[in-house]
Design a protein that fits this description.
443 residues, alpha/beta
Length: 443
């Protein structure tokens, strides 16, 4: 794949017309790009330019571009576009289980969901996270997927069942959690444990007071304390009898230990219901055209937290498919994300960090657009093979020159929508620098 950016432009007075500046995926050290520029400098225009050139080459390169349009303004003629919102009937299943023994499994699927939730503005509490982890583990097992049995991770595992085996959905998780919550209320095991704790606390207190009563010879006080304790024990025994009578599955007490308490489980139920209500996590696949090389995900209607979750799960799915495809020598998938800084984090398991570090050999190119390089970590910037500056606000100049090692003379000669700066790291080159490029009209 090639992208013609324009012509080498050494200064405003000197134009080398015979030196086109072309990016070649086969020569590039990696196919990742970072496009930087404030509003109005042409980020969306240049993303369209990349995609239009890609469209002309797609037939011979077997490439698919995934365009995550957060503002709803990256419209490309010929692209297959799908809008995602709470009212659309399709989405992606965050509980889809990858059966690959090396890259999938129950534990990894659950951890991915928990990590994604913790990168939103509403992080899970420690007890909530533990409760949800155990709940999802039980849900997968109830659907035939056992955490410790690799062979069970496949939908078609060769076992005959009355009902076909399927991946659980977020809706399944919500209903499963509500069932467990109702069982906790009806079973009475929470009351049993509560009153047992009261007996233990009361016994400790009474034992201390009895020792004091013995030392002072106050027999009346001692009898009163013993009577209080016996009354509490009788109440506890009655509660245990009630609990034993309510046992139906044999798992009631185990559920209490795994889900902590009714209050914690109730908060998890509410979180699952809210997550399910978002409407983007559904089991019906979006109607993209499989014959079209450009897939545009219009996620403008979603809130920022919803956009983060959507991108996290979809990118994870794309990456896992690429890994299973194996090592390739050219690009097969292009991921384009506008306002990309909103979706990065310092977590090692952030999918964008993983793609930046590991996805090159599996044929994935990551193209991020943002307003300044200061929004990204040094680690990410070091893993981006091509950096493009369309025009930064002057408040970012000093910090950007330090981060990107770019000369002031280059920064001063950038002209929005006319002259940009680009640095391309190619194979076999030991040192690269930014150069000015006179942009050519898009054709």
């Amino acid at each position: 794949m090639e992208i013609n950016w324009g012509t080498n432009y050494t200064s405003f007075k000197e134009l080398k017309k015979n030196e086109p500046v072309v990016w070649d995926s086969k020569k590039a050290l990696n196919s990742h790009m970072l496009i930087m520029g404030k509003s109005g400098t042409g980020k969306t225009y240049n993303l369209r330019k990349i995609l239009k050139q890609l469209l002309k080459q797609s037939n011979k390169n077997n490439i698919r571009a995934h365009i995550f349009d957060v503002h709803g303004d990256i419209e490309i003629p010929g692209a297959s576009s799908v809008k995602f919102s709470s009212s659309t009937p399709y989405g992606f299943n965050p509980l889809w289980l990858n059966p690959d023994p090396d890259f999938g499994g129950v534990r990894r699927r659950i951890q991915s969901l928990l990590s994604a939730l913790n990168r939103t503005s509403r992080k899970l509490g420690t007890k909530q996270e533990s409760c949800l982890r155990n709940l999802l583990t039980d849900l997968f097992e109830a659907n035939g997927f056992k955490e410790s049995d690799v062979n069970s991770w496949k939908v078609n595992d060769g076992i005959q069942r009355k009902y076909p085996k399927k991946n659980p959905t977020l809706d399944d998780a919500s209903r499963f959690a509500k069932y467990k919550l109702k069982a906790m209320y009806i079973g009475g095991s929470t009351d049993t444990v509560r009153i047992l704790e009261e007996v233990n606390k009361k016994s400790t207190s009474l034992y201390s007071k009895q020792r004091q009563a013995l030392r002072t010879g106050n027999a009346l006080q001692q009898e009163s304390l013993e009577a209080d304790l016996e009354k509490l024990k009788s109440e506890c025994i009655a509660k245990y009898a009630e609990y034993v009578s309510s046992i139906t599955t044999g798992m009631e007490f185990e559920d209490l230990l795994r889900y902590d308490s009714r209050d914690v489980l109730k908060s998890v139920v509410e979180r699952l219901e809210n997550l399910n209500a978002v409407g983007i996590f559904k089991n019906q696949n979006p109607p993209f055209d499989n014959e079209c090389p450009l897939w545009r995900y219009d996620i403008k209607p979603l809130s920022m937290d919803e956009k983060k979750l959507f991108i996290e799960f979809r990118l994870e799915e794309i990456f896992h498919h690429a890994v299973q495809r194996g090592v390739v020598d050219d690009i097969h998938d292009i991921i384009i994300i506008d306002e990309a800084h909103n979706f990065f984090s310092d977590d090692d398991d952030n999918i964008l960090n993983t793609i930046a570090k590991e996805a090159r050999k599996f044929g994935i190119a990551l193209i991020c657009a943002s307003q300044a390089p200061t929004h990204f970590s040094d680690d990410f910037l070091a893993n981006v093979g091509t950096k493009i500056i369309l025009g930064l606000d002057q408040m970012y100049w000093d910090s950007s020159m330090r981060k990107l090692k770019i000369d002031m003379s280059i920064m001063e000669n950038i002209v929005a929508q006319k002259v940009m700066a680009i640095m391309m790291n190619n194979k076999g080159e030991t040192r690269t620098a930014f150069q000015l490029v006179l942009l050519t009209p898009d054709t």
